[in-house]
Amino acid sequence: GLVNTKEMFAKAVKGGYAIPAFNFNTMEQMQAIVQAAVETKSPVIMQVSKGARNYANGTILRYMAQGAVEYAKELGCAHPQIVLHLDHGDTFELCKDCIDNGFSSVMIDGSSLPYEENIALTKKVVEYAHKFDVTVEAELGVLAGVEDEVASEVSHYTKPEEVIDFATRTGCDSLAISIGTSHGAYKFKPEQCTRNAQGKLVPPPLAFDVLHAIEKKLPGFPIVLHGSSSVPQEEVDTINAHGGKLPDAVGIPEEQLREAAKSAVCKINIDSDSRLAMTAAIRKYFDEHPEHFDPRQYLKPARENMKKMYIHKIMDVLGSNDKL
Ligand code: G3H
Ligand code: 13P
Ligand code: ZN
């Protein structure tokens, strides 16, 4: 069945790699994630946001994830390691509902709350979750941009001097931190970036000094990076070449994610890159086949393109391949 994050994080921290956490809302995303994980022999976290539950229905997504384990076996993986994780849970009730309904891991995101309230809420979720062997991700520090429904104008890096107190008092299993990543396909404003010779935006580097200070305070403790899509230029170009309009989209350079994955960062969240891969393939297909209207015709290349992206992240960026 589904597994929690405990063992896979311990192995990832020791092994100097990171587990991919891919969001899913559709069957094609689920299939592409499972195919990629099986082909690369990688553990994987399939995560569901509140928005995903609203879009697709929580029960359907839960059974899809349970089906994903069976699907992985059918594809020849004897012992798949698949986590079903709630992404950005914002209340105890939402986390409880997921824990009561088959999720093996939840995130309680109290990062927008005052420190003591974040601790109290997180601790309450941890106490409930651990009764059922469900692991809990917490967040300290605020990411820039729109965080699900929690909007924040500015980012506040995680304060290294708070992490020991926070982790000890909440009992959380992993900690999402803020070191300069943000959600979506527009992670930096053009004025925060420089431009390279081709006129493309080059974002400012992540705050690795903050990450290293946190690692020093909590040696071996699983750290999570949200907002880690790299917004591949190739996909943005394909979208824009086929009627799309994504000017100045910019993500986190993969070189920096590669570096983060070697540290205590053991979970890297990617959603936007999947959206871009899907949209690029569909836009291109529609342009090239205006006479087609069977969804299977255009969802197949969309699924293939997402699978290619997932495999690339696993093998060339996070290093979680051959870890089953
Ligand atoms: O945190 C953001 C994730 O990319 C999920 O996005 O809330 O639109 O499903 P969503
Ligand atoms: P991206 O928008 O960078 O893919 O981040 C996804 C994420 O953090 C989901 O929680
Ligand atoms: Zn996130």
From TrEMBL:
The keyword Zinc applies. The keyword Metal-binding applies. InterPro entries: Aldolase_TIM, Class_II_FBP_aldolase, FBA_II, Fruc_bis_ald_class-2. It comes from the Bacteria. SUPFAM superfamilies: Aldolase. Its cofactor is Zn(2+). Keywords: Lyase, Metal-binding, Zinc. PANTHER family: D-TAGATOSE-1,6-BISPHOSPHATE ALDOLASE (PTHR30304), D-TAGATOSE-1,6-BISPHOSPHATE ALDOLASE SUBUNIT GATY-RELATED (PTHR30304:SF0). This is Fructose-bisphosphate aldolase. It comes from Hallerella porci.
